[in-house]
Amino acid sequence: MKKFTRRDLLKTALPASVAAYAIPTFIPQTAFGANDRLRVAVIGINGRGKDHIKGFMNLDNVQVSTLCDVDSVVLGAGATDFEKKYSKSVKQEKDLRKVYEDKDIDAVSIATPNHWHALAAIWACQAGKDVYVEKPACHNVFEGRKLVEAATKYNKIVQHGVQLRSSLAIQEAIKHLRDGLIGKVYMAKGIVYKWRPDIGNLGNSAVPEGLDWNLWQGPAQEKPFSKNYVHYNWHWFWDYGNGDIGNQGIHETDLAMWGLEVGLPDTITSSGGKYLWNDCKETPEYLTSSYQYTKENKILQFEVRPWMTNKEDGVEIGNIFYGDKGYMVINGYNDYKTFLGKERAPGPARKEGGDHYKNFVDAVRAQDKKILNGPVETAHLAASLAHLGNISYKLGRTLKFDPIAEKFLGDKKANEMLTRKYRAPFIVPEKV
């Protein structure tokens, strides 16, 4: 087995100016002049929204001009922190619909709980705003398809918040897969081994001062307030979240599909459950899912573990790709290594990130969707893979799926779970 030298690596490495799908890095002249400031509103500022604010404010000629959150306490604290940090004032809004009415806003960045992502993004497209939306882009399969349709109909830029898509190292890794470095790639495994503790059961209580509980629930059916949901543990309840495969796991479902060059599968099998904590989580602590691609003769596996565990080739969060000439380990968002042949000889490796927010801004300024590293179509697919696994888990059986029609075969109950019952006026429309 040939040993790879640094010279070999440089010969095979993807140039920094070229992405895995030949995404152009130049920015053509557009309606945005060189001195025009891009004005962004960040919606949902308690968790990931903080990173959105920082990411956009770090860019030249970009201004976060509005913060929006349904919790006025969080909103006020966020605005105060913003003004101290950046020495600039910022507008505050509690209702995202007011943000969309603001003609001065060019783009919105959505970091709400999962159940709001798709509707917030669809409304933004309808209002003429470009969109950066956190993962998962949708709470169910139906919503993902509607978001793709909205982005197309209104010709808006929609970027999915999967940062690894802009990592130079990961782009290089994908090129190696395409070029046959590890041979025929037949399998990918997504790994999410996160420390998820017992959350107890806090029961129902009065709505905290400052929180608009009606707006927070949005598209979900109305229920009493509980501290179990706000502001993070909503991830573990089906009305609002999608478990860890639909939380952290979307990065890995996205990368697995990208590396395998596949879309939605035809056969899904999932199993798991709660084995550690007697708490009020609804989603499984442990989940393993298998996705078959009969036509492509490929398989995608995914595993979520919640607590004490070994690593897999050093990976707690990441992906492993298997080929007939070697395998590739992707650790996190910007680090890959390869191992070739029976002896697992070290091959090309790299660790380097990228700027996903800048990629979005570049695409907005150019009004060119081809520049996007995480386009809306990939957002729908990556999220839907997680949703399909969750449906198989909930029903406790293997499911057959038509990836073109995006429907289960002969399974009424499973097809009903591709969408949800919405609550007026927060309805994801059949026709966007």
TrEMBL record:
Which PANTHER family does the UniProt record give?
BCDNA.GH03377 (PTHR43818), OXIDOREDUCTASE FAMILY PROTEIN (PTHR43818:SF5)
All copies of domain Gfo/Idh/MocA-like oxidoreductase N-terminal, residue ranges: 38-161
What Gene3D superfamilies does the record tag this protein with? Answer: Dihydrodipicolinate Reductase, domain 2, NAD(P)-binding Rossmann-like Domain
Molecular functions (GO terms):
nucleotide binding
UniProt entry keywords in alphabetical sequence:
Signal
Q: Does the keyword Cell membrane apply?
A: no
Q: What species was this sequence derived from?
A: Lacihabitans soyangensis
Q: Which residues form the signal peptide?
A: 1-22
Domain Gfo/Idh/MocA-like oxidoreductase bacterial type C-terminal: start-end pairs: 192-254, 356-426
Xref: InterPro entries: Gfo/Idh/MocA-like_OxRdtase_N (IPR000683), Gfo/Idh/MocA_oxidrdct_glycsds (IPR050463), Gfo/Idh/MocA_OxRdtase_bact_C (IPR043906), NAD(P)-bd_dom_sf (IPR036291), TAT_signal (IPR006311)
- State if Transport is listed as a keyword: no
PROSITE patterns according to UniProt: TAT (PS51318)
Can you say what this protein is called?
Gfo/Idh/MocA family oxidoreductase
